[in-house]
Amino acid sequence: MNALREQIVQVAFGWLGTPYHHHARLKGVGVDCVQFLIAVFSECGVVQEAMTGTYAQDWHLHRSEEKYLAGIRQYARPTATPEPGDIALFRFGRCVSHAGILLPEPRQVIHAFAGSGVIISSMDGQELNGRFNSIWTVVP
Predict the structure, then answer these.
(1) CB-CB contact of 105 with 125 (8 Å)
(2) What is the rounded distance in angstroms from the CA atom of residue 29 to the CA atom of residue 118?
(3) At the N or C end, where does the chain have fewer CB atoms within 10 A?
(4) HEC secondary structure over 90-138
(5) How many CA atoms lie within 13 A of 74 on its CB side?
(6) In what order do the strands lie in the sheet with 108-113?
(7) Which structural domain, as residue segments, surrounds residue 74?
(8) Closest CA to 97 of 39, 35, 34
């Protein structure tokens, strides 16, 4: 694993235990899944600070528009060879609406999950099973 990927994983681990809070981005206080990605990747210098605007917590249940995926496309590209530090996208509702950062352990991600906060989950586990969509990377 290269140094940038190691840094991404280590920065993500620093968020473990942060409570879930919609539209927040403050380590140890509250974060949601999109703000978690922005915080980690901007701290690592991979992307500039991204602005998301406001969004309803349940927007993905009522629309088919791929808003989350459109945001990912601005900074990342799909990859067929997943590595630690890449982004795993998941479908909840009608469209891609959740993401986590791949860990070195096979099929595990760190993500901000509603009701749980920043946790490590198996991609095949209870929270994410059957929801996987694709893998994207921001690593040059």
Answers:
(1) no
(2) 11
(3) C
(4) EEECCEEEEEEEECCCCCEEEEEECCCEEEEEECCCCCCCCCEEEEEEC
(5) 12
(6) 77-78, 132-137, 87-92, 95-102, 108-113, 117-122
(7) 3-137
(8) 34
Residue 59 is classified by DSSP as G
Question: What is the CATH number for 133?
Answer: 3.90.1720.10
How many domains, the chain?
Answer: 1
What string of pLDDT tens digits covers the 140 residues of the chain? 799 999 999 999 999 999 999 989 999 999 999 999 999 999 999 987 666 555 556 555 556 678 788 889 989 999 999 999 999 999 988 889 999 999 999 899 999 999 999 999 999 888 899 999 999 999 98
Reported residue count of the chain is: 140
Taking alpha carbons only, the member of 97, 103, 82 closest to residue 40 is: 103
**CA–CA separation, 48 and 45 (whole Å):** 7
